[in-house]
Amino acid sequence: MRRWTMEEIRERVESRQKETEEALLRMRQHWEQTEGKRPRRRNRPRDPDEIHLLTLMAKKNWDDAVKAGHVHYDPERRVLRIEKLVRSSRGTNSS
């Protein structure tokens, strides 16, 4: 394996720095054109432990919402109702 001197490393970094800055600039311009939305794509699959922990967290959040009364089961319609999303009956004429 070849040993690099600090001068060689510095030259290599400086030679590629312009390319890197141009690539970053292009990427930032693309983000601005798409209203600042950065890509949210996952680059790797989830680990089984990560999946398990996320599932436990979601179940706990769900149980907390049910206990707090934010989520109700409507047996007549057989649906779950989330109180934040239910339209208010205020403002309608019932006469």
Low-confidence parts: 91-95
> What's the pLDDT, averaged over the residues?
81
What pattern of helices and strands is seen along the backbone? HHEE
Largest sheet: 2 strands, antiparallel
Number of helices, where a helix is a run of at least 4 consecutive DSSP H or I residues = 2
Strand content: 5-15%
In the residues, how many domains can be counted? 2
Q: Roughly how much helix do the residues carry, as a percent range?
A: 40-55%
Gross geometry: elongated
Strands ordered across the widest β-sheet: 1-2
Termini distance?
88 Å
Structural class, from helix and strand content? mainly alpha
Biased composition (Basic and acidic residues): 27-37
Region (Disordered): 27-49
Quick summary:
With 95 residues, the protein is mainly α. It has two domains: 1-41; 43-95, no CATH class. It is built from two helices and two strands.
Characterize the structure shown.
By secondary structure, the protein is mostly helical. It has 2 domains: 41 residues; 53 residues, no CATH class. It has 2 helices and 2 strands; from the N terminus they run H-H-E-E. A two-stranded antiparallel sheet has the order 1-2. 0% of the residues are buried. The C terminus is likely disordered.
